[in-house]
Design a protein that fits this description.
homodimer, 401 residues, Aspartate Aminotransferase, domain 1, Aspartate Aminotransferase, domain 2, PyrdxlP-dep_Trfase (chains A, B), pyridoxal phosphate (chains A, B), transferase (chains A, B), transaminase activity (chains A, B)
């Protein structure tokens, strides 16, 4: 584990973010297969369901649809979200739910409300870049701990909690972006116990939890904290409708313990007053329609097929030259070239060969593993998956040859 | 003018904000006439136009409507906004336009990007409370300068620019909330010249400019800066569709000089990635339809009638007991009880009598004028205006009697 100078990290995160943005342009370049995006598959959007919800709202003919709303979110939507959270095992009332402008805003809110300059926050290595961007704005000190297929390394976390005064830890327990890793049940319990012992806040970010492709769902850190003495108020849970319904609506949500709720709501008021009323009404009606329950299996099946297609293509075309773990869910495959091949160098060849990915080094604030890469399977087909593997093999061969 | 301790200001702003939020609940209480809101009249929403834009967007059947979008905003909307800005005399390209999640986000963005702790920002006294909230988060030092019917006092501003190292000044030049004041043309020119001489940034907030009820539009500070040597890059312009189309869509916008554009866009990326795609497409199609040009005169005429109704009701029922200036536009009347009557004390009686307003003291970070009050005429009718004046007179009489 290593300490990161805040300003350097901020600059690095900014530069990496620009680099990733730059890569996104290839997602619309004809002839290029993009494994670089982090976007949900548009062909899986439930357009019919979204239009039905929208039509219902318009037929209700309430001018409130277009009027200012409450900072905390529309009451009906907060009720629906509390129900959804309950299905995930989070027992909290609607009064603990805050609607956010995407889960990016939830990250910004926790950074603003809880992190002061000089505070210390522990993050995973690698970690979700946009979360690091939000934290960097607070000028908090970020300490990174390695995280793999089983989630963050708890021995390192324990040592850090014991040796440093840590304010918060940020984890994506389910199918993390970019690592694809899932925090095991044992580690979840241990993390909550450690947090309780050292009074460390846990920022639990769960955008992908409903996209489990195999195995059984694990309890959230929020749920475990509710059963752990001294931990009840320590977890702030964040999620979103971006991966399971529509990212364009910018609908995220948080479950916030009573003790902090009003502070977070007051911060949101200063940030954007409230989130789009129309989006909120659409999501509220969509959830009330019960369609999400029918839709999730469709999404899971489709992503499972795409994940498998990419995995088998990589095995077929790259064989021993690459290694990766099959993720239990989500949208990302975290892979590693053998022999310490620099993924950024391969990327240059890959673009020529007609395939793009994100070099893993973009997801480290420090000590980057240069042979890693993040591959998204969310928008591929069996054909493009095969072709992507073939092109990647060509790029790798040209790069090392 | 006076200096404000940042932490005290932050606490005060928070408390005032909660007090104003508390008052808003009366806007839906049966039997109470609310002059407290800052909301546009829902009966004036162009529902037909909004639905037409929405219908067009859905018929276009592009899944991009629900997908992630660019942080800067949808390209088509940025073009439309550049055209709208041009009509207001702001000559800037679409590449200078940033779409924001309401203009509250624009305020948050300028605070985040330009203000560091210990920086000094000059604000009007009284000032828009939510702007002060956004600035308070930056922990910048806020210095307030009196502002009246003709806008901010430029002699005081000049003295301050000369004696302090000022980073930025925040002004609402047209029909400010809460003062209703409009910065005169001479003062606009002088403010830009002063800013150029002392290299002070101007945050120009213009939510109400299109709601001019009488007289001719004055050039924006942004436009004047474009013609003033050394001032070209000093003005960041902010506006919104909240007052002229729909606040619920959360669509604000900024025109940002080239020198700062990418810094602001990167900050927005960390804050909420991008604003609601659906809202953007609705506004884009609405602007493309040309309906706004037909709508604005309808809004202006309606607000002019409401403004006059409130003014004459106050004159009729309160006579000499209250004084105010007729605003040239916007939605607010700034009034003052004679004889230093405390508006907060009157409010308590007013609620009993069935009318609410916001005591003016809520809009001061320091040196509050306790006899002031803000009255919104946006949602009243001739009948409720008359009754509001009658009730206010009763409340005042009971309060002083």
């Amino acid at each position: 584990m290593s300490e990161t100078d805040t300003l350097l990290a901020r600059r690095a995160v900014g530069a990496q973010s620009s680099a990733v943005r730059e890569l996104l342009k290839y997602s619309r370049t004809p002839g290029i297969i993009s494994l670089a995006g982090g976007i949900p598959a548009p062909d899986l959007f439930d357009i019919q369901g979204l239009e039905a919800a929208l039509g219902e709202e318009l037929r209700a003919r309430t001018r409130d649809t277009f009027q200012y709303g409450m900072t905390e979110g529309e009451a009906g939507l907060r009720d629906q979200i509390a129900t959804l959270a309950g299905k995930r095992g989070l027992h909290a009332g609607a009064h603990n739910v805050l609607v956010t402008t995407g889960s990016q805003q939830a990250l910004d809110l926790v950074a603003r409300v809880f992190l002061n300059p000089e505070d210390t926050i522990v993050v995973e290595r690698p970690a979700y870049l946009a979360a690091l961007q939000a934290f960097a704005f607070s000028e908090a000190r970020m300490l990174s701990v390695p995280s793999g297929a089983d989630g963050i390394d708890l021995d390192r976390v324990e040592a850090l909690f014991a040796s440093e005064r840590v304010k918060a830890i940020y984890v994506v327990p389910n199918f993390a972006n970019p690592s694809g890793g899932t925090l095991t049940l044992d580690r979840r319990r241990r993390l909550v116990e450690l947090a309780a012992r050292h009074r460390v806040l846990i920022f639990e970010d769960d955008p992908y939890g409903d996209l489990r492709l195999r195995g059984r769902a694990l309890p959230s850190l929020f749920e475990i904290a509710g059963q752990t003495p001294g931990a009840r108020d320590l977890v702030v849970y964040m999620s979103t409708f971006s991966k399971i319904l529509s990212p364009g609506l910018r609908m995220g949500w948080m479950v916030i313990p009573d003790a902090y709720y009003s502070n977070v709501a007051i911060a949101k008021q200063a940030i954007d007053l409230h989130s789009c009323t129309l989006s909120q009404r659409i999501v509220e009606r969509y959830l009330a329609s019960g369609r999400l329950g029918e839709r999730l299996p469709i999404l899971r099946d489709a992503y499972a097929v795409r994940c498998e297609a990419l995995c088998s293509s990589l095995e077929r075309h790259l064989g021993d030259a690459i290694e990766f773990n099959r993720p239990d869910g989500g949208m990302f495959l975290w892979a590693r070239f053998r022999d310490d091949v620099d993924a950024s160098a391969v990327l240059a060849r890959a673009i020529e060969a007609g395939v793009v990915f994100v070099p893993g080094s973009a997801f480290f604030v420090d000590e980057p593993q240069r042979n890693t890469l993040r591959l998204s399977y969310s928008t591929i087909t069996p054909e493009t998956a095969d072709e992507a593997g073939r092109r990647l093999a060509i790029a790798l061969e040209e790069s090392v040859g």
